[in-house]
Each structure stands twice: as C-alpha cells, then as structure tokens.
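We store chain and fold; example below:
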Amino acid sequence: MAAIGRALAVTLVLLGLWEGAVRLLGVPAYILPGPLRIAVTAWDNAGILAHNAAITLGEMLLGLACGSVLGIACALAMAASPLARRAMRPVLLVAQALPVFAIAPLLVIWFGFGLASKIVMASLIIFFPVASAFHDGLARTEQGLVDLARLGGAGTAKTLRFIRIPAALPALTSGLRVATAVAPIGAVVGEWVGASAGLGYLMIYSNARMQTDMVFAALAVLLAMALILFTLVDRGLTRLVPWAPETAPA
C-alpha cells in the first residue's frame, strides 16, 4: 500500500506540473491538452472508449494466449530434440528481427481487417520472449539433477517432464511477464494499419481530426488496461510458482 501511495503521489505531482505548464505557456489544446481536459473528454466519451477498449482487450488477451502457447511449444520442442532446436532457432531470430510494423500491412492483406490479423501480430511479438526465456530455463537446468534422473532410469521425456520443466518455470514466468507488458503493441499496431474499431483505430481517427484530447484519453485507457493486466498476470504467476521468491534490495 505504501508503494501504491508513493506512485499515486508522484503521478499526481507530474499531472499537476503538466496542467500548470499547459496553462502557463498557453499551449493550444490541439497540440497538448491538459490532464483536466483529457479527463473531461474521457468522461464525455466513456461509452465510445469502453466499446473500443473491449475490442482491444480481447485482441490483447487472445494474442497473449496464442503467442504464449506457441512459444511454450517451440521451447519444449527445441529442448526435446537437437534437430528441432537447429531448425527453430532461425525462426526465433527472424520473429524478433523483423519489425512487426513493417510486416503489419502484409498481415492485414493475408488475414483481413478483422480480429485475425491483430491476433497474429500480437502473437508474433509475444512469441519470442516466451520461447526464448523458457528455452533458456530448460537449457540451464542443473546438470546434477538431470544426471540423477538418468541414473534412476528416466528417459528424455520423463526428465523433461519431472526435472527440466519444473526447474524452468521461473524462467517461463519471466518471459510471460515480458510478454504481458508488450501484448498491447501488437493489437494497437494492427489497429493502426487497418481496423474499424479498437483503441488504436480511435487514436488514428481522432488524430486525423486534430482531436488530441481524445488521443490522450484513448492512450490513458490503454495504459490502465495494460497495467491492470500485467498486475493480474504477475500476481497469478507468483502464486503458481511460489518456490521462486523475488528478492528486493535492502
């Protein structure tokens, strides 16, 4: 609660400075509206924001689920088979090296302006941190545990199931946390390139009409959704992997 209180205090101070600077310098609202104006705009357009936020949230959740499942499956395949590892490693590098914004128009052409292209874009962004972190955890399993399992007669599958996967779960949770943090990127980029609804679409629509306060209102809603989603995932992962406690500096 103390940490939340400090964060709120800092946020209120920054918002107050923002509002004061806008009023003192006389910055036009179409360039940089103040927080109060943005809050009024958000209140007056709550229905529109809620409708578009629900669409973007659905894209984020589906992209997070698909990308995470794909990343976990890829990491398991690479850990179980050297051949799969050699074949999939270039795919991982390509998935990370290609900017999603560069291929977003192609994905819209291939999958349409609907939900599918947004899910694919979000999955491509989420796939890499999950697969990379989980595979790294699987590869760094303590060798003594692996040798002990093999001495007990465990084969590759049993060693992977009972030794390597449990040992790699903390690394997987780190990857999932990163994936949750970047989940909004794929959905919003997809909506920027081609969509008829969603917060990204609302930002582009409002920006073209110089409704900067509406752009900021949509950004604020997107930020709130991302923070809430990350907090829920973070707490859920902490409960699922209690044997990996976090340490904080004294």
